Structure formats: structure tokens, C-alpha cells
Amino acid sequence: MMARYKQIEWTAENIRRIWDYTSGFPELYFTNKFGDIIVDRFKKFIKKGGNILDYGCGTGFLIPHLLKLGANVTGLDFSDESIDSVNARFGEAHGFKGAFGIEEVLKSGKKFDVIFLIEVIEHLDDKALNESFSNIKKMLSNDGVLIVTTPNDEKLDGSQVFCPNCEHLFHKWQHIRSWNKKTLCSCLEKNGFDIVNSFVTDFSASLKRNQVRLAKLIIKKLFSKKLPHLACVCRPVK
Measured between alpha carbons, how far is 120 from 129 in angstroms, rounded to an integer? Predict the structure, then answer.
């Protein structure tokens, strides 16, 4: 039945508009739900006083957890409303270096020890994906680390919604591609990164958060059931 309807074309303007709108609903953001767990999982890569970039920071829910570790944190986003929101929230916070658009960060020439790319790559077409990895390599320090998360083997059709006004289908979170461990690692390697570690997980199953969910995670692993989240740590090839 869905074959009758066309997919929406995700132009730069459409993408900007949907994320300007979504920025008004902070409870929907992945990092709002799991930001503390993500930072806790990767904190061994974060040094006090280190320079951290949250690439695609949204409205900034990863940032306070990074600041708690004593890092110097910069946000980068493609929605002006999200950038304004982040600067308003953290403008006076110790260690916060501001939120900016991509051109401003590139022009500054600043290098980062760790770049977080959290739940971003599932939104990018080939051109945007290649540009993002190229820009990230320019911004990483010589020994810098890129940390990527994305949904694991997502079935995109399951989250399609229909617009009765334009009669088009679209993924409700503007996801346009699905990743698994093999395709993610292959893409990163093709774009000039060495894989340090890659794994599937369930960020909701954390001893810090919920022991019941942690027990369910262990059961899923024992029975090889698919876990919802995919993560990869990598470094640029020298």
C-alpha cells in the first residue's frame, strides 16, 4: 500500500524546518534520555581540560554531562534555533565554549580531542555523510577520537508517517538510512578512520539507571536478540 505514495524529498530547507520545530520538544531527543549513560560509557576518552565537540548537538543534552567531567565543550548544529537554545542554556557555564554552525567552527581552526557524533549519521545522504566525515577529520587533533552512535539495523518502514496535506511519506525522525555494525565500520574505514572498538548495546540497560533493564540486556545477549543501539570508537588514519 505504501508504494502508492512518494517519499518526501529531504532538502536542506525541509531538514532545517523539521529540526527547528523539534527543538521545541526536548523530551524527544536521544541525548535527553541517554546522555548521562553515553558520557559515562565513553568517559575514559575524556580528559579534564580536554577539548570536546558535540557534532549535531541539538538542544545540548550531552553538554552538561561532559562539563561535569571538567572538559571544554563546544556545540555544533545545523539548526539556528538549536544553536540559540544551547547558547542560552550554557552561556555562563564553566568550560562551555559556545555553540556554532559548521562554517564558524571550521573557520576557527580549532582542534578537538574527542568529537561526539550521536544519532546523526542516520539522517545524512551520501553527500552530507562524506562532507561530515571530511570536516570531522579536519577538526580532530592528531590523536583525536571520534565516537559515533546510531540505531542498530533499524527497520525504517516501521517509523513512516503520512502527511495528508502533501500526500507524502516520511520517517518521523527524518532518518533516511539504516546501519549495522558491518556497514558502519566499512563506511568509517572508507572515509579514513581506524576502528578502535565497535559494538551493539542498549543504552537504557545501565546499572546506573535501571538494574531490571540491565538484566534484560544480559538475557538478550545470551539469546542473541538484536540490541537497539550501535556504537563505534575510531581514530583518523595517520
Answer: 9
pLDDT digits (tens, 9 = 90+) for 110-128: 999 999 999 999 999 999 9
- 115, 139 Cβ separation under 8 angstroms: yes
Residue that has been written with the C-alpha cell 576518552 in this structure: 45
Q: Report the distance separating Cα 172 and Cα 213, nearest Å.
A: 26
Can you read off the three cell numbers belonging to residue 201? 548495546
What's the whole-model pTM score?
Answer: 0.88
pLDDT band at 56; cut points 50, 70, 90: very high
Distance, CA of 234 to CA of 178 (rounded, Å): 19
The CA distance from 110 to 51, in Å, is: 9
Grid cell 545522504 is found at 125
The per-residue b/e assignment along 78-98, b for 16 or more CB within 10 angstroms, e otherwise, is: bbebbbebbeebbeeeebbbb
Backbone φ/ψ region at 27: left (φ over 0), alpha (ψ -120 to 50), beta: alpha
d(CA 236, CA 230): 20
Task: Give the Cα separation of 62 and 202 in Å (integer).
Answer: 17
Find cell 581552526 and name the residue: 109
Residue 179 backbone phi and psi in degrees, to 5 = -125, 150
Does residue 232 contact residue 198 with C-beta atoms inside 8 Å? yes
Give residue 160's pLDDT: 84
Instruction: Please identify which residue in the block is written with the cell numbers 559515562.
Output: 40
